Amino acid sequence: MDKQQLLRDPNAEPTKELIADCLGPSGSTYVAFMEQLHNHDVGMDWRYYNDGKAWLGKGLFKWVTSRGTPKEITVFWLAIWEGFFKVTVYVPEKHREAALSLTLSNEARKMIEDAKQIGKLKFFPLSFEMHSGGKFDDLLTLIDFKKTLK
User: For the purposes of burial, counting CB atoms within 10 Å of the CB of 127, is it exposed (0-12), middle (13-18) or buried (19 or more)?
Assistant: First the structure.
């Protein structure tokens, strides 16, 4: 049986308890990931999206320019699935070579090499299914890289 994306009720905002219930044993990985995000100055914004009929978490890096203007960039999207969460980082095609020069596992490097550009958009997606913390290093390296593309 295929796993299903969860958090589909527009009236049930994601809470720590609801997410933990959806993730089961992977819930501790989610908590650890949220703690790591805090250390990387990335916050989460949950919203219900009608086009996908589900709640998605948007990882946001916020900063203030030298002129005092608040800015933000979306560094990843997060979806809750049965037993795991999926984090997708969209990298601009023009930065593929720079992404390949990062210190990453061979698996992540192959993911970048094989990723296909999305339609007319000039981005390619890198999706990580998070069951455990084994992919944290690659994912956090890509999140930090995406933050530099502001």
Answer: middle
pLDDT at 1: 60
CB 124 within 8 A of CB 118: yes
**Separation of alpha carbons 100 and 113, rounded Å:** 8
> 3-class DSSP state for residue 82?
coil
Alpha carbon distance 81, 94 (integer Å): 31
Q: What is the pLDDT of residues 109-145, one digit of tens each?
A: 999 999 999 878 899 999 999 999 899 999 999 999 9
pTM: 0.94
